[in-house]
Amino acid sequence: xxxxxxxxxxxxxxxxxxxxxxxxxxxxxxxxxxxxxxxxxxxxxxxxxxxxxxxxxxxxxxxxxxxxxxxxxxxxxxxxxxxxxxxxxxxxxxxxxxxxxxxxxxxxxxxxxxxxxxxxxxxxxxxxxxxxxxxxxxxxxxxxxxxxxxxxxxxxxxxxxxxxxxxxxxxxxxxxxxxxxxxxxxxxxxxxxxxxxxxxxxxxxxxxxxxxxxxxxxxxxxxxxxxxxxxxxxxxxxxxxxxxxxxxxxxxxxxxxxxxxxxxxxxxxxxxxxxxxxxxxxxxxxxxxxxxxxxxxxxxxxxxxxxxxxxxxxxxxxxxxxxxxxxxxxxxxxxxxxxxxxxxxxxxxxxxxxxxxxxxxxxxxxxxxxxxxxxxxxxxxxxxxxxxxxxxxxxxxxxxxxxxxxxxxxxxxxxxxxxxxxxxxxxxxxxxxxxxxxxxxxxxxxxxxxxxxxxxx
Length: 457
Ligand SMILES: Cc1ncc(COP(=O)(O)O)c(C=O)c1O
Description:
Blueprint: E1 16-18, E2 29-34, H1 44-58, E3 67-71, H2 75-87, E4 90-96, H3 101-109, E5 113-117, H4 129-139, E6 143-145, H5 153-169, E7 176-180, H6 185-195, E8 200-206, E9 248-252, H7 254-268, H8 274-287, E10 295-300, H9 314-319, H10 331-334, E11 343-345, H11 350-356, E12 361-365, E13 375-376, E14 380-385, H12 386-395, E15 413-415, H13 420-427, E16 437-442, E17 445-451, H14 453-456
Parallel strand pairs: 2-10, 3-4, 3-6, 4-5, 7-8, 7-10, 8-9, 11-12, 15-16
Antiparallel strand pairs: 1-2, 12-14, 13-17, 16-17
Helix pairs in contact: 1-2, 1-5, 5-6, 7-8
The structure holds pyridoxal-5'-phosphate.
């Protein structure tokens, strides 16, 4: 048994655990690299420790008494806060307001200061997570911006530890590595080492993420993939991600990622987060193409304890349209299927919207190039009706050039499979918008705008 003189010495050397039930019927062995075994609870402990050590070595951060600032969806922040506690630094974490609340509480528990900002801002916006973190570091005495996205210590630590561990643990038998891509540090570093040994490197990516060719719209698996604001102009891929290391990317719909996440807890006894579910879903698709001599290792970045209020909460899952309520009647029973979603981009003049649509409700959306007839829920800004716009122009013809978004009314969202009673109760809540329409969600995407009356009773 190992005894450590510091919690930081316990980072790394995580176990490989064979997946036995979710893999039934598949020929290759599939092993999960259980990164929640790190003392801070995630794979990001490795990068956090490596980045701080390197910054202290180069003098970018004093050996003690400095201020570590980072843009993080949570886990890197926990790793940095843990290292900060040991080395006598302060930690400031800038997080998107979309992350699970457990992650915020967790950062605060480690003594980190948490600054929340809007998660869906263009890369150029001064309050974008990365810009805000950089500016806080610059104006704080002793401040250092860790910048996991561009910091070479991030992928390097995986090349020096995660990759060699997997090689040794499998006795050199590993043939395929599967990992999600957030900053890209894990897949780039681990993949760089393993590909030198002939291992095929496979990225697992949420379907909407741009890494695998998605439209960049918001998705629901936290911490992996790449969201892209439609107003972002330049290249905003992290420097640490080297796509040349990745042989192939498997795109996974959110429903499948979340389904596998839940199955891993119930069938394997492995309580892991959504990015693990995404990676395992990709590994299972891959394994279906492989034979008995192949050995797949899939990285499981963190624990499901971070997501009890989301992926493991049946209410959350039904509200966002990822599953059906156990008992009916359900929302789709009282709001029969409509003819799809009529949309108008924010910024369009009212007159143009009236030329494009003849009647009924129209969803006002964040403008985005997409071949998808549905829209990610966060990108529906509100609802206008053709009738109300016509009445507006009849009364005030001078409003024809108004931005349609000025006339959009916020609408509550309901899951298509949500129990009618649950949806009705929620619509009555004070913090829900009181409009005439609801947004009908399937798999976290708006599929139709429907009247709210049948639910309001
Ligand atoms: C839960 C989780 N999964 C996956 C990742 C992605 O890892 P990487 O940034 O090394 O690509 C992260 C990174 O923050 C994470 O927190």
